[in-house]
Amino acid sequence: MKFSLTVVSALFALKSTLAVNQLTIKGSKFFDSVTGQQFYFKGIDYQPEKGAPEGDLDPLADSTGCTRDAAVFKDLGVNSIRVYQTDYSRNHDACMKTFNDAGIYVLIDIPTPKYSIDRSNPSWNTELLNMYKLKVDAFINYQNLAGFIIGNEVANDVPTTASAAFVKAALRDIKTYIRSKKKNIPVGYVDNDDLDIRLSLIAYFNCGSDPMAQADFYGVNTYRWCGANATFKSSGYDQMAEPFKNYSVPSIVTEYGCNVVQPRSLGEMGSIYGPDLQDIMSGGFLYQYSQEDNNYGIVDVSYGKSAVTKLDDYAVFKKNMAAANPKGTTMNSYNPSLKTSSCPSVSSTWMSSSTLPPPPSESVCSCMVKSLSCVVGSSYSTDDTGMVNALSNSASTICGLTSCADVTADSKNGTYGPYSYCSSTQRLQWIINKNYLNQNKNSSACKITGAPLNVVSPSQSNINSCPNSSSSSVTDAPTAPSGTKPGGSSNSGGSSSSDGSSSQSGTTGSAQSLILNHTAAFILVLLCSFSLF
Ligand SMILES: *[C@@H]1O[C@H](CO)[C@@H](O)[C@H](O)[C@H]1NC(C)=O
Ligand SMILES: *[C@@H]1O[C@H](CO)[C@@H](O)[C@H](O)[C@H]1NC(C)=O
Ligand SMILES: *[C@@H]1O[C@H](CO)[C@@H](O)[C@H](O)[C@H]1NC(C)=O
Ligand SMILES: *[C@@H]1O[C@H](CO)[C@@H](O)[C@H](O)[C@H]1NC(C)=O
Ligand SMILES: *[C@@H]1O[C@H](CO)[C@@H](O)[C@H](O)[C@H]1NC(C)=O
Ligand SMILES: *[C@@H]1O[C@H](CO)[C@@H](O)[C@H](O)[C@H]1NC(C)=O
Q: Low complexity composition bias: which ranges (predicted)?
């Protein structure tokens, strides 16, 4: 009696929890690290926004929502979700356990709209490194964490390709940070399937002599397949997949589900999980779970509420998922010999050098500031746009007259000043101080209308004895920012463009908005060179 009760409860326990095994990558495929079976993402993009509290979106902090949706995922046959926006400072234990128990892997985007590399004014700096580490720390210990995404559609056309070097530097440093914690969580990059730049991007994130600077997987957000009559060929899915045929790491369709024709028939699922792509890619994620303004949802849900309303596309997705039965291989019988890519050369259509920005180091930056003789006063605030603009305008003018290469990053040329990764306030002070020294410490060169500046005697006598950038800055523990809560309420973020892609490459806040290009400097020189000194 006692025995059979135990058996019954053991069976019940097995049935009610499907805790997942860690995933591992071999060649261009994912595997279950315990069973050795190939793993395909039967995924859905997950970012419910309705009714969410003020601040950063974070569906993984809504335990009611996660319990509600874990049951829906089971009904759909989904085994993974991708979550774009989360708040490192909230607790995710309940949601991650709920999903783990339901057999759901989670792919986490590291950036948020406020803390991300800005495609049109890119920088990989101390602040972003710190924020990205905090995000890693918030999720790294969950067993069902499938991987991290270092950037989503950052370079999305030819003019923004200069941002790729900064994203690749971020990838290198975050991989280094994760490996320093003895974790093998993969870190990947995701593009927007832009025909002009995709081949370069796919090669770029897979090239170079430093394996830490290569993506562990590559994602494509693609909306090529539209309408019931589209086929693998007519949609261009065959071309979409072509560069991944001999790619050395796994590729995933991180967003699919064109909604131009409604209701959707989602015929691409037959290709993603069938003979067309099962040997090339590792599954995909439907965009998206919840119905939002952009009209891609399959359910209607609201933060903290248990109700779920199924929409038109729910049944189609469920039926196609039930038919998805990709024929994979096993880790033991798969022994690939795949080569990494050659780096694309810099050209008018590709503006990221294979020489990457250095790892940001806060100790280098604070030492640099300690060596300065003209610095901002304690009343200086990066939240005060008047002060920031006063300093930025002066700095732009100065940089039109003297070299600011030490605080400037040029990813097209592959040249990065030793302080180019410092905060904008630190870099601005370096520039103002340079002018102050050039003016032989004339006190009027340390005065700017609208910004507090002080002449001080530096506590660090020689800038050249400051430490150099090193990988220890990458493995150091992050510090939670003080003052206003990160993510604040100023940026609701996650705004979705018409193609359904959730843009993550918005602003990085006023702290990153320093413009130091020569056009701007030249114009400012013309406008205000007489009033400055
Ligand atoms: C799809 O094909 C069917 C049958 O051939 C045809 O009736 C229909 O008009 C086509 N739809 C579109 C959008 O081309
Ligand atoms: C992939 O590699 C195989 C074997 O080396 C080769 O035959 C094939 O042409 C390659 N395909 C592409 C698209 O490079
Ligand atoms: C470009 O890089 C070369 C060496 O890598 C350097 O000498 C040169 O100054 C750089 N040009 C600019 C405009 O920064
Ligand atoms: C940092 O690098 C510079 C130039 O490479 C060198 O002159 C300096 O001695 C280095 N500083 C330290 C502390 O290693
Ligand atoms: C430089 O700044 C000017 C003025 O802000 C802007 O119009 C231009 O696009 C910038 N150029 C580059 C290459 O960033
Ligand atoms: C300091 O700069 C001001 C403003 O440019 C100028 O009038 C003054 O002569 C300078 N003083 C010295 C000692 O160079």
A: 462-473, 482-509
